[in-house]
Every structure is written in C-alpha cells, then in structure tokens.
Amino acid sequence: MTEPTATVRDLLREHYSSLTQSERKFATSLLENYPAAGLASITIVASNADVSTPTVARMVQKLGFKGYPQFHQALLKELEATVSGPTQRRDKWTTEAPEGHMLNRFAQAVTDNLGQTFSNIDATQFDAAVRQLANTEGRLYVVGGRITRALADYAFTHFQAIRQRVTHMTSSSATWPHYVLDMVEGDTLLMFDVRRYETNLQRLAELAAERGVKVILITDQWASPIAPVAEYSFNCWVEIPSAWDSNISTMMLLEAMIAATQEESWSETRDRYERLDELFDMTRLFRKFS
C-alpha cells in the first residue's frame, strides 16, 4: 500500500460517504479541530471523539494508511508544512529535487499545482461563490495578507470595474475595525490567506462572520484557520522548487472567478465597462491610435 499524497482532510472528504456512523463521528471530530484532534495517541483521540479505538484504526485504513502511526505521521507533516518558513521550504525541495534544469522542474511543479487545484474545486461551490461576488445588494470587501495583498489588489481592480460597492481594505490591520464598523449582513468578504497563516486575518474573518458577512476564502492546500468560518473555501496547491510558495494556481482561480462574475451580471458589467472607457478617454489615461 502506497502512502497517500493528498492531505488527511482531503481523504476524509473523499471517503466520508463510505464511513460507518461511528467512523463519521471520529472524522467529524477531527475536522472540527484539524489537525490537533488527531495528534495524540490513538487511545486519547478515540476517547476525545467518544468512539472506540478499533473504530479509529478501521477508519485510518479506509483512508489508505497502513495503520494509525502512518496516519499520525501524515498529520504531523502537514502541521510542519503549515508553519515552515522560506529556509525550511528550500531545504525540503533541495533534498527531494529530481535531476534537470530549474526551468523544467519549475514548469512541472506549476503544472502539477494547477492540476491538483482545479481537480479539487467543487463546481457547485464555485458557482455559488460567484453569485455571491456578483450580488450588489451587499458590499464586497477584499483583503489579503503580507504576501497575498498583491492578489487582493488585483482582485479589487477587476471587481471594482465589474460591479459597484467594492471596498479594498488596506493591509494594515490597525485600520480594519473601521471597515468592520460598516459591515452588515449580506455583505461579502473575499480573503486571501496562505501559510504561515496570519492571526489578524483569522480574527477579521470571525468578526465579519459574526455580523452575517459571507466570507469567501482562497487559501493553500493545507487550508487557513479561516476555513471553518468561511461560507466558501477554495484550496490552491502552491509548492514549487523555491524557498517561497507560488501564487500561480491562486491567480488562475482568481481570474476564473473574475471571468465568471463578469458573465453572471454581464448586462450591468458591460455598461460599467463602456462608461469606464469614456472616463479613460476624458482623462486621456491611455494612448489612442487613429
């Protein structure tokens, strides 16, 4: 039996329908406090979930693990990956890197990331998130973190052209209470958060969700702690042969969302595009060729 390459969370979701009632009880307990609920001994995790030790043993085998030790080790590796910095990431890929030019290795890693990302997106959830992004009855807020603020800026530029009532939140968390003050039920908060996850973004998501704001999260394959409070959560694969993670699959998903949101409200969006072009002409922002 080969070691599973997907995250334990992915495996739980994939096999959930085939689990028994008691096994689902343990799976639910683990997902509610992931991955911490699975980091203790098999006896303790079974007791905490109020199931038997054999139940846990059977479930981990259904996920593709030889036994609980291998399952436990997989969770530990996931936890280590979420907190690793640039130095640790580079150490990892240099010890595992196959032979070949950097360009070839990089291209293969990016191709794999894109394939993994889009094969794990639920189309129904994607469509629902797009409808939420296109809903102008509420305001759309966009925010990113230390690395992902560039993605938030890109998202704002496009969504602000597509629809009205879009707010780009600054990257300074000290100003966020001013934005939260105006958030109301029915608003949408589009968030970007990747490892090493930012605690201020998590608190912002919690405050927004408490006010009835629909949180749309774009995160990495390990999933930001924001995921449990998000209405819609999308995982993007990001590992590349570098000390830094890649934003290519994240950008690709974002661009798909932008295109789908544009089509969702095309009649209104077309009118905004035309009026925006008129303003560009008036300000002579772009060079025109006769």
Could you name the key traits of this structure?
290 residues; alpha/beta; five-stranded parallel sheet; 56% helix; DNA-binding; HTH_RpiR
Describe the protein in words:
Residues 6-82 form the HTH rpiR-type domain. InterPro entries: Homeodomain-like_sf, HTH_RpiR, RpiR-like, RpiR-like_SIS, SIS_dom, SIS_dom_sf, WH-like_DNA-bd_sf. There is one protein chain. With 290 residues, the chain is an alpha/beta fold. The protein has 13 helices and 5 strands. The protein has helices at residues 8-15, 21-32, 42-48, 53-62, 68-83, 86-96, 102-119, 123-134, 149-162, 176-182, 199-210, 248-264, 266-283; strands spanning 140-143, 166-168, 188-192, 214-220, 232-236. It has a 5-stranded parallel β-sheet, sandwiched between helices. Helix 11 links the parallel strand 3 (188-192) and strand 4 (214-220). Helix 3 packs across helix 4 (53-62) and helix 8 (123-134) crosses helix 12 (248-264). The protein is globular and about 70 Å long. The mean pLDDT is 89.
